Structure formats: C-alpha cells, structure tokens
Amino acid sequence: MLSWHECSSKDELDQQLADFIAEQLSTAIATRGQAGIAVSGGRTPAGMFKALRVKELDWSKVFITLADERWVAPDHTDSNERLTRENLLQDKAAKATFVSQVSSAATAHEGQQEIEARLAALPSPLDVLILGMGDDGHTASLFPDAAELEAACTSDALCAAVTPPVAPHQRITLTLPTLSKARSVIVHITGESKKTLLQNALLEQKPEAALFPIRRVLNKATAAKHIFWAA
Ligand SMILES: O=C1O[C@H](COP(=O)(O)O)[C@@H](O)[C@H](O)[C@H]1O
Hints:
Layout: E1 2-7, H1 10-32, E2 35-39, H2 46-52, E3 62-66, E4 68-70, H3 80-87, E5 97-98, H4 108-119, E6 128-131, H5 149-154, E7 159-162, E8 171-174, H6 176-180, E9 184-190, H7 192-203, H8 213-220, E10 224-230
Parallel strand pairs: 1-10, 2-3, 2-6, 3-5, 6-9, 9-10
Antiparallel strand pairs: 4-8, 7-8
Helix pairs in contact: 1-2
C-alpha cells in the first residue's frame, strides 16, 4: 500500500510528518518497549526534525540512526550526523540514543565493518524509515550508476560503502534489504520536480536493476509506504 500525503506548505509538511512519525514511535514503544528509526540527511529534513524533537514521547527508548552518511567528520558541514545532532537530537529528543555511521577509518570501505557492528545493536527491523530522494532518483546512498549499487542492493549486510559517481564524498548506506524490512517506510520530498520524478519512477517498466533506487526500495518494502510532499 502506498499513500500520498500532499501538504499545502513546507511548514504544514514538517508538522504533519512529525505528528505521523511521533505516533509511529509511540506505538512501537507501547508494543515492543523500544523504537528504532533511520532518518535521512540532505537539505529536506531540518524543519521536520525541529517539529519532531519537541514531541511528547519516551525518547529514552528511541534509537536513531541514519539511512545513509557521508564519509566526513561528524562536525563537517556535509555530515548527516551533524544535521541530525543540531536539528533533531535537541529538546525532548536529546534523550534518544544516536548510532553514528562514521568512524576514523580513512575510507567508507575500511570503516564498513565497524558501522555494521554498531547497527547490529539497533532494534531490527527498524520501526520507521524516513527516506529522502535526490534529483537523480537516489535514495539513502543508493546512487544510480554507482559501482557498488548492485552489491548494496543484494548484500546480506546491514550497510554498505558506496562511491557516488557524481555527488561528493564516499558514503555508508543502509542496504536495500535493510531499508526494505522497515515496518514503516516514509518518503519525504519537496518541490514539483521531485514529485514528477517520483511519479515517473513509480510508472517505469524496466528490469529491476535499471529502475531508480527509490523505486527499488518501494518495490521491495512490504510495509505500508507513505509519501509526504509539499511544493
Ligand atoms: O545525499 C543525500 O541526498 C538525499 C537527498 O537530499 P536532499 O538534499 O535532496 O533533500 C538524502 O536523502 C540523503 O540522506 C543524503 O545523504
């Protein structure tokens, strides 16, 4: 099942999505005693993070990680961890446990095993997955045309190292199997061009390996899928 939630402004989107996520985290805590969520980075989620961090829920039982990370120091401007620490892990959400996906290893490939071990301690499957989508149809750090894409889509591991063909920085990404097992999959996008891209991606009739990565995740995910969008 895939539902579109169209909001009339970015502020409304941030609030509605934060309400929706908070509800899902609360349900997970009530049902299983804890909640695991993977959030995305990039330019889109900061406003939603600020709306989510003040929600009344037992944040001490929430484990937060990333759908993907850029292989940069955690204080780098491009770090998804930095974005998450500055915008989400504040106020009430400061009590949550954050699982970082970067280490001092020189490359993402060299650091992958350490990140894998950290991720193994998270609730599995994840209760909530928030995906962004790039203008090239990438999601998490599953980039079209990346040399490691197929490995990251078929791996038994929780995470994979990826070198984007064009975008900066090596990445760690949750693998397609890990992403697609989440109990709830939410795509958070803004702007007309991303809406059109996603609509087209959902209509494509191509072999699996040629589909946009966002479509591959949505195809494989068996949970309810929700797209939250505003212009
Ligand atoms: O590189 C990344 O890009 C995507 C999309 O980001 P946006 O800036 O277009 O919102 C993001 O979902 C991902 O986490 C990030 O590492």
